[in-house]
Design goal:
The complex is a heterodimer of chains A (163) and B (332).
Chain A (H helix, E strand, L loop, with lengths): L1 E8 L2 E8 L4 H8 L18 E4 L2 E4 L12 E3 L12 H8 L9 H16 L13 H7 L10 H13 L1
Parallel strand pairs in A: 1-5
Antiparallel strand pairs in A: 1-2, 3-4, 3-5
Helix pairs in contact in A: 2-5
Chain B lengths: L4 E3 L4 H9 L4 E4 L5 H7 L6 E4 L8 E4 L2 E5 L4 H6 L1 H6 L1 H9 L3 H6 L58 H7 L3 E6 L2 E6 L22 E7 L8 E7 L7 E12 L2 E10 L6 E2 L1 H7 L6 H11 L16 H20 L1
Parallel strand pairs in B: 1-3, 2-3
Antiparallel strand pairs in B: 4-5, 5-8, 6-7, 6-8, 9-10, 10-11, 11-12
Helix pairs in contact in B: 5-7, 8-9, 9-10
Classes of the chains: A alpha+beta (163), B alpha+beta (332).
Chain lengths: 163, 332
Amino acid sequence: MQTEINLRVDGTDRQVTVDTRTTLLDALRERLANTSPKKGCDHGQCGACTVLLNGRRVLSCLVLAVTAGGKDVVTANGLAPDGELHPVQQAFLDNDAFQCGYCTPGQVCSAVGALDEFRRGWPSHHGDTELTRAEVAERMSGNLCRCGAYTNIVTAVQQAARA
Amino acid sequence: MRAFDYQVPADALAAMRAVAGNDSAVFLAGGTNLVDHLKLGLTHPDLVVDITGVTSDEVVERDGGLWIGAAVRNSDLAADPRVCERYPMLSEALLSGASGQLRNMATAGGNPLQRTRCGYFQDNTTPCNKRRPGSGCAAVGGHARYQGILGTSEHCVATHPSDMAVALSALDAVVHVLGPDGERTIPFTELHRLPGDEPSRDTVLHHGDLITAIELPDTPIARRSRYRKVRDRASYAFALVSVAAAVDVTDGVVRDVRIALGGVAHKPWRAYLAEEALRGQAAIEDNFREAAAAELVDARAVDGMDGGNAFKIPLVTRTVVSVLRGLTQENQ
């Protein structure tokens, strides 16, 4: 079944016809040529596909594109609309918070969402009231990095939180 | 993945009717489990009915307790100040589950209905009585680390994966359901089934039954409650064993207690035997241990090529003792 949907992607209104089976991740990458979100596991386990959907971090590989009609999608690309880096992106560069970079767009979107959740006072399993290293690790645990750049990722998220 | 039609019904009644009238239709809420199952080929619906807009996404006060709309996201529920203050075990259980992204997607109505994460259930190439009735069970003698120790059957040893459901069981939550015959309620402790000889059925719900809300009764004892989850890594992992507990101690005696266990059975396991053993007894560690032993009288380990899951039996005891000790020390 083919369905036409309207999405706002990184600030631009887009219209695309998708098969109902298409995930938001595949719609972005294969139909709208936005390869910022990455396909890692495609089963909701790695976080590489993380985007902001109506402002919240979600896994685009587990969202059917038809359910995202009328919604606002922000990928890591959209965080730097005019080439000016988002504080989270700048912090990742400043701290060398990646090696191969494949998980980075997902890490960046997840960090933006996580910092927003923290500022809104959402609790976490770890339970620190400040963004200690352990607190950042808990809030970012849905994003895997096979290069193991976690040490610098945590530092980058802490820097971005102060920005 | 087989092609399917997609519907956005106008309201809960239309959603229920769309699914009840089509054996091959499914409800789609957060999608965190269903979309994965579509990819894995574990389910092949002809029709997917989007219910994210047909039930409430708010938590409201009612009769001294809270009503949780089925569309409330796990992250919103965990952060709700009323839940944190009055039912802390529920907030802790939610926060111990999955990841920030998944909690933003998962819903109160969908979370209890997620399927087991038994590796054989999720692998179409292996025998599994839950996925293909009569095909056998590859878990016994296979990877048994995450399998159950209570209420298992020769046909299935799988565990229910939800953390939230363990807390809802301890809290005597009530599930509100809209089905072809109208509205009804189901005590949360009776929502899930034991596998018996029909492990393909996880719950007592019938096809087309739609969970519309989950009700938390006024439960003063829950104001001091905990959820403790033991797992193979510190975050983003399913429970090996988990304990949701609340206890009321006066003058050193347990006046009332609630205990539910996760990671041990086909359903969230309300530990009625342990509760009964503890009521009226001194709040001391020996009694906590004896209460856990009473619950585990019929516990049976599953053998496996990974060493099996016999470790869970003493792990339940130690976790129950630890949680109750923590709660009762705060009490004094």
